[in-house]
TrEMBL record:
A GO molecular-function annotation: monooxygenase activity
Keywords: Monooxygenase, NADP, Oxidoreductase
The keyword Cytoplasm appears for this protein: no
Lineage: Eukaryota, Fungi, Dikarya, Ascomycota, Pezizomycotina
GO cellular component, one term: cytoplasm
UniProt similarity note: Belongs to the short-chain dehydrogenases/reductases (SDR) family.
Descriptive protein name: Aflatoxin biosynthesis ketoreductase nor-1
Amino acid sequence: MNLHLLTIPILIETTQQPAQLVHQWSRIFYSGHRKGPGIAFLTGALYGYAAWAKFSIGEPWHHWMVAAVTTVSMVPYTWMFMNATNTALFHAEDRIEKGSVEISLQESVRLMIVVQLDCNSETDAQTAVQTLREEHGVTHLDVVVANAAMATNFGPASTMPLEHLQAHMMVNMYAPVLLFQATRLMLEQSKQQAKFVLIGAPISTITNMHDYARAPLTAYGVSKLAANYMVRKFHFENKWLTAFIIDPGHVQTDMGDQGARLMGRPQAPTTIADSVAGICARIDAATKETTSGHFVIHTDGSQLCW
């Protein structure tokens, strides 16, 4: 069976938005029971999650990517993905088809394995992988998405306090490196084309820095630039791996809207739905030959300058 199933964080921090996003996602993506593309929704206490599946029409969902790695550093979620039999997904999809799209926290927990990953920790990534192996019997991972990031210091590079740069480097660069190092052997066991994906930001560009020079986000930009270098390095060092960076757009999350306000705009231009749809499409279509080692745009896969 040809199955591609991706779980992508929606990145929201209020208790009111998950239900709204569930309905938004169902209108955009849900197109029939067990027919592609289909969609399931997992709604927790503070965050909404969307799972998007594309598979051959008429074939059942035998596999479900259930491993999620969260951060607890007031930054968005980072997710790990794997295949595991999980018939609970059928029941979730049945409820969506019948119009009952609210899935309880208890039900959502049954659809995934949740393990802690604090991006300020040097050991959480290894501990999370050990937990997946020893407590859940996970032997391989197909896709790892390093999404967690922070942007909390605003001002010119000339006066940026060192402690803010160090904090951004830990979360935005060191943490993705530690995540890859922890998951590398499990990715190598994938029976598909293993993929390691970093959610990047165009503000990290050197070539086109003139387009972003007035943005007071030095610590964020340089830490994302360093992370880009490492992911491209992973590409060259591991012939079996598809490793690349995706620009998700300037997304209407709390962090995205805050950045927009810093630039005098009311909110970010890219909706969450458009961003997630593009990210899913880029990951699904990525290959070692065409995508790996590059920084691509979520809308069409075209490449950004370093």
